[in-house]
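Reopening closed ticket. The problem is back. First fold of the pair:
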Amino acid sequence: MSLIERLIVQIVIGTLGLWAAVKLISGVEFTGSLQYLFLAGSILGLINFFIKPALKAIALPIRILTFGLFSLAINMGMIWIVDVLFPELVIDGLGPLFWTTVIIWILSMLISFSAKDK
């Protein structure tokens, strides 16, 4: 898969993940239009594509010590950044943030595995 395809996949995952979290999790609300939701998902995809690999490399010793659980904190941080950047997106507390992260992680696994098969 080329870099552009991977970037597009990350944007789709971010957008669908935020939409699913808004629909499924109480404590996650989005008051803007669908265009803003797509923009927020795009920003999340861009952050995951460009910034997350650097953070994972920097945090490698901590990730090794925690058997990879610190990756969850990194993922939650990426979603929290989008929450701060977009006042239309409201995630109330760590519980909804955790479940939003889980939804996006599961969606990422499903889409990534199906994209690798092709």
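Second fold of the pair, where the issue appears:
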Amino acid sequence: MNPEKITIVVLDRNAADLAALTESLKAGGYRVLPASSVAQVENYARKEPVNLVVKGFEAGRVDAIALMRKVRAISRDTEFVLCGQGGTIAIAVDAVHQGAFDYLVKPVEPAALRSVVLKALERQALVAEDPKLRQSLRRRADPDVFVGTSAAMRQVADTLAEVATTDVPILVTGESGTGKELVARALHERSNRHAGPFIAINCAGLPDSLIESELFGHVRGAFTNAINDRPGAFKLAQNGTLFLDEIGDLAPKGQGDLLRVLEDGVYRPVGSPETVRANVRIVAASNRDLARLANEGRFRSDLLYRLNIVELFLPPLRARVEDIPALIESFNRHFCARHNRRPKTFTPEFIAQVTRHPWPGNIRQLRNLIERLIVTVRASAIGIEHAPPLPDPAVVPADDPLLVVPRGTTLAEVEARMIRQTLEKVTSQRSEAARLLGLSRRALHYKLKALKLE
């Protein structure tokens, strides 16, 4: 590998850190392009192949995952190495789950940076040579959510096996954190489209004014600041799978645009006079009751009928507690291999404690706990002292009339009531409320927004 032929973009809004990272990589012989904004990184990627992006975190900014998606929409094999302070580790873990190669803590040692960059470039070279390896690495990037013996997950696995090789739209439902995107990826990898791209779009994050452009792309001059042609999600997913996450939060205009594509099989990029035939498999996901939203007029019933040809319901973790030991062992093998750790053992007391935990964050919460313990616990055995505490009984007083759940109440409504009561009657401090509810502060913030409790 000739370093002079490798292009690395370094993005850091801290001028001193940008200079230090740039100089460290130049010392390794690489061609380094410094950047101070996301737009500048995108411009570099459009003009020439970018092998790797080194992204520095700044306190209060959490745009790493958005940057990865934007750059990979232009250059899907670009690798990412993240650098940040200790307070950004939780964000970095999410980014690594989304496909970043590694994370380094600032101040970054030059030798450590060059070592990680070399490994990232070696993986990039292997992937470029072998498309099958691309799929293998993608599978290794996600732990297995199908392990265990519960009847609910056996039914999911059986249905997935039946429909994977078809092109029918699939609706994946379940609470937040149950592994809906992992199931969508499993559908893609077992389908006849597995050699094509898998593109994931968060519908809740699509501004009304940009929905058409994000889904269908635009041509140069279509609107102000449209200085280049830009492919949309349907173009990027051509011959592959388009995963529409949080479909229940898609704005009404986007629902109509999506319905037209599903009915006609064609779309028109913004500003283009020509239509394009869509050859994608649609997998949608929601943690909301779409039928109820449709009855309330907040989601198009005709779109729901188009999407919900086959539904895969993912049960919450509390409904498949018998799978928890197998999930822990699966996460143990996966994260020990990823982080170069010796496999850990989990004591029976630890297993018993986590089996009794309510896990409001579901598999994602359990996965993050096991990964953190594998990385931070030096001992070979992980015991009950490392298990999360059970919720404080004070959070759920038995005689509180607000906890009476009328027949027909949805799980989302029960969850909203619990969160509201914890903040109003137990503690107004979000960090403490998150601890009592068994959530991270970030997860609580997300739920407050999703349940409109802010």
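Update: turned out to be a display glitch only; the data is intact. Confidence is low (pLDDT under 50) at residues 131-140, 394-403. The CA atoms of residues 325 and 362 lie 14 Å apart. Please close again.
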